[in-house]
Design a protein that fits this description.
365 residues, alpha/beta, 15 helices, 20% strand
């Protein structure tokens, strides 16, 4: 089960610098954080999680395998992309294939780096990309509504549902708001997702600031934060220059450099975690002497489906899940002490996996 976050941005905002730093950092940490390059512009990176190291230490696990998320460096965008300007068609096609968008915004002043529009206004930059996605959605909906007219007249239930959802999306878009603002009932969720509207993608704004502003941000990143909060989205402040420097250092040097800059951790760690949270993902763990491993599931996943992430046979033959809460596992000192204290539970098919659960699945082959 792969989860993909597309990194987008206007020219000269630091998008590629951040992506390159992200992939180099992951490669440098290969001992504990596996990384692989699927394509030149795709990076599969580990999600930082201190809990995994603590579990591995308690269980004396030989290997530590973190959960991962994929970042895609998407082709640059210019105004008019929805009409095919620049690499517009490629840009929109790539957006359609990701689960969420990390939008890099320029929040720094530098006369040596020219802005494509001749001004520094990250909120306006965000609106440029959002507008292109919305215009593309409007064009897509108009075509699809024409194509299903006959089916709707014939009373086709699926077509009637699609028309209702597309009409709701169109009303929102024509009001100048992205389709993600439409409230969708649970019974319509699957059909809504099938529409694959670009402006339904959740957005993480990545504010690229100067080195001096990396710890606290600045007025420009503050404005982005206000915009993100109003939209129900998130924002993260990073300095591409700092991240690029860190990516060239070993772990000890990087920690010292971060300390000197007044930073608790690399900004890219926050980007990775924020992307994970943006997709409403959770982590459960399997722990033993061979390996301690983190697994990714969407929030609300039932135990059999969580087992299926490991192997399809686990889901098909699911019997029960032996479950220990993370806090109990760590506080009591491992599986056996937790079991002796009555903190190991046997959960059935109706159990909803919780973030941090340490699980062992029993199944029929």
């Amino acid at each position: 089960m792969g989860f993909r976050v597309g990194i987008v941005g206007l020219p000269n905002v630091g998008k590629s610098t951040l992506f390159n730093a992200l992939t180099r950092t992951a490669a440098a940490q290969a001992a504990n954080f596996p990384f692989c390059t699927i394509e030149p512009n795709v990076g599969d990176v580990a999600v930082p999680d201190d809990r995994l190291d603590k579990l591995a230490a308690i269980a004396k696990s030989a290997n530590i395998i973190p959960t991962r998320i994929t970042f895609v460096d998407i082709a640059g965008l210019v105004k008019g992309a929805s009409k095919g300007e620049g690499l517009g068609n490629q840009f929109l096609a790539n957006i359609r294939e990701v689960d969420a968008i990390a939008h890099v915004l320029r929040c720094f002043e530098d006369d040596d780096v020219v802005h494509v529009d001749g001004r520094i206004d990250p909120v306006a930059d965000a609106e440029t990309i959002e507008t292109e996605l919305m215009l593309a959605d409007i064009e897509s909906i108009e075509k699809r509504l024409q194509n299903i007219t006959r089916k709707v007249r014939g009373g086709d239930k699926e077509a009637v549902q699609q028309e209702r959802l597309m009409t709701a999306a169109m009303a929102m878009l024509e009001d100048g708001k992205p389709a993600r603002m439409v409230e969708v009932d649970a019974e319509d969720q699957k059909a809504w997702e099938m529409l694959q509207l670009l402006s339904t993608k959740p957005v993480l704004y990545v504010c690229n600031v100067a080195e001096a502003d990396a710890a606290e941000g600045n007025a420009l990143s503050d404005a982005v934060g206000e915009m993100a909060a109003a939209q129900g989205n998130r924002h993260v402040v990073v300095s591409a220059r700092i991240e690029e420097e860190i990516s060239q250092l070993d772990a000890e040097e990087a920690a010292e450099f971060l300390s000197e800059m007044g930073l608790a951790e690399p900004g890219l760690d926050r980007v990775i975690r924020a992307g994970y949270e943006l997709l409403h993902l959770e982590t459960y763990f399997t722990v033993g002497p061979k390996e301690a491993r983190a697994w990714t599931v969407p929030a609300g996943t039932f135990a059999p489906q969580a087992a299926g992430v490991i192997h399809g046979d686990f889901e098909k033959g699911f019997i029960r899940a032996e479950t220990i809460a993370y806090d109990d596992y760590v506080t009591l000192g491992g599986e056996n002490p937790a079991k002796d204290a009555g903190k190991m539970r046997a959960e059935g098919k109706g159990y909803v996996v919780k973030d941090g659960d340490v699980l062992h699945f029993l199944f029929n082959t």
